[in-house]
Design brief:
Quinone Oxidoreductase, Chain A, domain 1, 2 domains, alpha/beta, Rossmann fold, 26% helix, 7-stranded mixed sheet
Length: 317
């Protein structure tokens, strides 16, 4: 038997329930993992509240790291005892689970399960933003809307190491934490925010990475230069109404899509290795996860919604 955190209806954190169920044996191409750490991401709350629909009942979560217990027929890349991690495979809030070998990456000796569960999904999303959705070059001016969030902060820091001028926005309460991540920081609450941003980017910015959505998109439109790129990665405040015809008239490219569309089984390990290298080289700063027992997933989700945690969060079985 294994413990899992499931929900049988859409709703707030209270719909999460801890249950016991039998862990099935892995089938062809599958691996049974014993989790050591499980990543908690904002997207988990969007599955739970029904923003993203899945079949119910469902096990929460999309990211985890641990030890291979057993493998199914046809598995050639992994063996019992291997240390592995994965991102965006729904059903991670469990002490043990079965996943396809195609979603797994090998963990280097210097990457703990806790570190992997803290940075893999966020880091791969940042990797996608830089290498696939929009490809900023040295000297570009880039705005990260939501740079105080988990993905936004890693993205801003990574961009800055590439000779890019990074402008970041975030809540006033968290703005001090952006000093090491961006060149110029502005609070969402600033009146006429687009005008303030244009004091450091008079001709507009070349790229906007939009992680917030409805509440920031007007500013995004006000600062993106004609011919620039808007990469929509997330919508923490809800989806923005986007006039694609208006963007087209200005020659603005709109890039959208999920990390899973850009990070596939063919480039997953290589992309993950770049994320791990960035962590080793200090690109992401100090990464220290806030830990919760698996049984307290409700509290972890409540803390996300109330913005009570400024860093990564993991569940520990």
């Amino acid at each position: 038997m294994t413990y899992v955190v499931k929900y049988s209806q859409w709703g707030g954190p209270s719909v999460l329930r801890v249950e016991q169920e039998s862990a099935r044996a892995p089938g062809a191409g599958e691996v049974l993992i014993r989790h050591e750490a499980i990543g908690v991401n904002f997207v988990d709350t969007m599955f739970r509240d029904g923003t993203f629909k899945v079949g119910l009942p469902a096990v929460a979560g999309v990211e985890g790291a641990g030890i291979v217990e057993t493998v199914g027929p046809g598995v050639t890349r992994f063996a019992p005892g291997d240390r592995v991690a994965y991102f965006f495979a729904p059903g991670s809030y469990a002490a043990e689970r079965v996943v396809s070998q195609d979603v797994l990456v090998n963990l280097p000796d210097d990457i703990s399960a806790e570190t992997a569960a803290s940075i893999l999904t966020k880091g791969l999303t940042a990797w996608m933003a830089i290498n696939a959705m929009a490809k900023p070059g040295e000297g570009d001016r880039v705005l990260v809307q939501g740079a105080t969030g988990g993905v936004g902060n890693l993205l801003a820091r990574w961009l800055r190491t590439r000779g890019i001028t990074v402008i970041g926005t975030g809540s006033q309460r968290k703005l001090a934490g952006l000093e090491q991540a961006v060149d110029h920081a502005f609070a969402y609450e600033t009146v006429a925010l687009d005008e303030h941003i244009r004091t450091v980017a008079p001709n507009g910015v070349d790229i906007v990475y939009e992680l917030v959505g409805a509440t920031t998109f007007a500013t995004t439109l006000g600062v993106i230069r004609d011919g620039g790129t808007i990469a929509v990665i997330g919508a923490a405040s809800g989806g923005a109404a986007i006039n694609e015809t208006g963007l087209s008239r200005r020659g603005i490219r709109l890039a959208r899509g999920s990390t899973g569309q850009y990070v596939t089984k063919d480039n997953l390990q290589a992309a993950a290795d770049e994320v791990f290298d960035a962590w080793r080289n200090g690109v992401f700063g100090t990464v220290s996860a806030r830990k919760y027992p698996l049984s307290e997933a409700q509290r972890a989700h409540a803390d996300i919604l109330e913005r009570r945690s400024d860093g990564p969060m993991v569940l520990v079985p």
